[in-house]
Amino acid sequence: MAEPLLRLVDLRKHYGGLAVTDGVCLDVLPGEIHAVIGPNGAGKTTLIHEVTGIVAPDSGRVVFAGRDITRLSLARRVRAGLARTFQITSVVAGFTALENVALAVQARSGSSFRFLRPAATERATNDAAMAALAEVGLADRAAIPAGALSHGEKRALELAIALATQPRLLLLDEPLAGAGPEETERLIALLTRLKSAYTILLVEHDMQAVFALADRVSVLVYGRVIATGTVAQIRGDAAVRAAYLGEDEG
Amino acid sequence: MAREAWLPLAVLLALGAAPFVGLGGSYETTLMARGMILGMAAVSLAFLVGGAGLASLGHAASLGIGAYAVAILDAHGVTDAARVLPAAIGAAALFSLVTGAISIRTSGVHFIMITLAFGQMAFFTASSLAAYGGDDGYTMYSRTEVWGARLLEDRLAFHYICLGALALTWGGCAMLLASRFGRVLRAARENAQRVEAVGLSPYPFRLLAYVIAGAIAGAAGFLLANATEFVSPATLSWQRSGELLFMVILGGVGRLWGAILGALVFVVLETWLAQQMQHWKLVFGPLLILAVLFLRGGLSGLVARRHG
Amino acid sequence: MTTQLLLVQALNGLQLGVLLFLVAAGLTLVFGVMDFINLAHGVQYMLGAYLGAAFAAATGSFWLGLALALPAALAAGLLLELLVFRHLYDRDHLSQVLATFGVILVLNEGVKVVWGAAPLQVPIPPLLEGGIEIMPGLQYPIYRVAVLGAGIATAGLLWWLVERTRAGMLVRAGATNPAMVSALGVDVRQLFTMVFAFGAMLAGFAGVLAGPIFSVEPGMGDNVLILAFVVIVIGGIGSIRGAFVAALLVGLIDTLGKSLMPDLMRLFLDASAARQAGAALASMLVYVAMAAILAFRPAGLFPVRAG
């Protein structure tokens, strides 16, 4: 078996007496889509915060590409190759779609402490940004202010931004949240296309999507991973059915 | 900006032509110099507020520190611009670096209050400098010399030096905002989390912007001290910081040149009102409140809307 | 510096601290509940001092002056809320700062028009004249002790109001989570007006108390306002307990610093240089303390709002 790209080792986090992350262990293998599902209050958001560096775990380690990143900031993790999208879309509304992506391109190519040349005239940066936009099907929306894009387009833009950081792992935090049926379909098609090229950690509520996309699934309940396995294994797991599927059939 | 840029260019041209169309007297040039110098400080503040999203209520401290650098060196017989100007800029930049390093860790209303407090710290420090006039301020022996020449004493030369400095400040800040550096600042103003999620920490960018704005205000302070040949703690007071912020808002946040407009209108209005009545602030205060309540987008917003 | 002088200075510091607390309490609550930054809170302190002085002079009694000044300060606060502040709640902090700055200009000028630019003297009420012996051979003015007592009593009352009453519960909830309070069906506007008026009265109360100690003059509220800002930043915005602790801290640091620093400097410098450097350092001390605390706790000592 290949060395995992991301390893969560016995992560723990308490808020007061409540164990929100209670000894989570999880591996993401290179090339796979690993989905994390769980009912509301299972501790998914906290887990994402721990993986992305917004919340520090009380104990345990986050190992990325063989390197302990438990104490790194969000920005340093992104530079190490761990890109993320947000549950609530996060783009710079006043920038065009292109400039949103160009910001990510300039962050990884050369210093951003450049003061003289107008950034908008950097050919190489703009070309790379256009390529990322094309990858998510937004090439013809490049000049639109991000704030004026539709919800689904903002989701896609966020993906383009993440791709432009040239990540080794994509962490997608409920990429389908708030999307209508049509948008969901388009986003799933997009994620399916990305699947072959990227390793993805997917946290998602939409069961249909998870079962369609994921190679492996981990089920989080009350801060613990109660099962990890292929889609078929998870569907057949009695404990999972009891804890999760029974009460919230997606 | 391109379509609206005729107005600030016209204003700068008008200021350039003013001495030759009957406004070359001592009174007019003094007034214009004040407007241009405060305009320079206001543009640097607009760069901070509108560009980097850092609403400082202590910007006058940098202005005053620049001015005090001139006064203190003057008291020790140093009047050579080659030494005084770098000292003024350096002192203001250093103050901004130290106070910015702490204040930029906070955001929103904390930032406003902390910059206010640091500004007040500078004010009280200046007031306690008994050797340089303390509360009463310090009258300079002479204006700064430029390579031994008394260039700044020449009314016309000083007018164009102020104008050049103002234009340079505007152009420089606009260039910075358009650059890679400025792109990070603008993005972080709107959505700091987004900037972090592409792998950049906004902090060093903001700090550098804060230091740059402080340095520009220090240079403006250098000119201000030379314009009045007098420096007092009032230059650093938080009321002055509030006035600078008002110039920015009056001009319209988000457009650097708005601050030039705001500063000129402010100075003219203040001077005119003060001539009309003793208690002019009773009129000025309500005008300020009304401007904030009803003139959203500022003066430059009015102009831009008509040409948008 | 003798122990006696140190004790006197410490008491003076505490008494400045309780005055600061009375001003900061309103400021921190108003900010906590409505996310509204009110620079004009300092002029409400000034207004209280002027009203107290004017009513005391007119009636010949400090106590009648106090009794009249409090409702007058409250009314002035309500009037300002109605005329100006109400229109600013939905605006960004920058607009709030500037509009309330405009109010300061007007009121600072206004008191000059009404009462003149020269400082007013407010006599100490006869009941509280003289001193008491706090140590053998050491007299301390009774009035200052009374101010200290009144401040602490008010702090206690405030604590009870905020911690033990329904209105206080709403105010606390509003500071932590404003959306929740409106979801409870509470008229947040009305709640705010109440908090606002109460805060204005507290500031006015501090002003009346300060009258006989400091000079009553235009602009007297500005420095208090900035110190009150330092207090609520150190204490944690929205926290009454934080404001109390921080106010005493700031009062002590400021007062003791001003009396100790020049002496401390004499260890290193000659007398006149020491006096200058000491004065400069002392005036910076409060801000340095604020910076030091914020470097370790950016949200203040008692942060209210999570995240």
Q: What can you tell me about this protein's structure?
A:
The complex is a heterotrimer of chains A (250), B (308) and C (307). With 250 residues, chain A is α/β, with parallel strands linked by helices. Chain A has helices spanning 44-52, 74-80, 97-108, 123-135, 151-164, 181-195, 207-213, 231-236, 238-245, and strands spanning 6-15, 18-28, 33-37, 59-64, 67-68, 82-85, 169-173, 199-203, 216-221, 224-230. Chain B has a domain at 28-237. Chain B is 73% helix and 1% strand. Chain B contains 13 helices and two strands; from the N terminus they run H-H-H-H-H-E-H-H-H-H-E-H-H-H-H. With 307 residues, chain C is mostly helical. Chain C has a domain at 8-218. Chain C has a two-stranded antiparallel ribbon with strand order 1-2. The longest helix of chain C is centred in the first third of the chain and has 32 residues, at 3-34. The radius of gyration of chain C is 20 Å and the shape is globular. The termini of chain C are far apart. Chains in contact: A-B, B-C.
Q: Could you give the distance between the termini of chain C?
A: 45 Å
What is the percent of helical residues of chain B? over 70%
Give me the secondary-structure category of chain C.
Answer: mainly alpha
Question: CA-to-CA gap between the ends of chain B?
Answer: 10 Å
SS content category of chain B: mainly alpha
Radius of gyration of chain C: 20 Å
Q: In terms of per-residue confidence, which ranges of chain B show pLDDT below 50 for 5 or more consecutive residues?
A: none
Strand content bin of chain B = under 5%
Give a quick account of the main beta sheet of chain B: strands, pairing sense, barrel closure.
2 strands, antiparallel
Beta percentage of chain C is under 5%
- Greatest contact between two chains: B-C, 43 and 46 residues
How are the strands of the biggest sheet of chain C laid out side by side? 1-2
Count of beta strands of chain C: 2
In round numbers, the mean pLDDT of chain B is 91
Amount of helix of chain C? over 70%
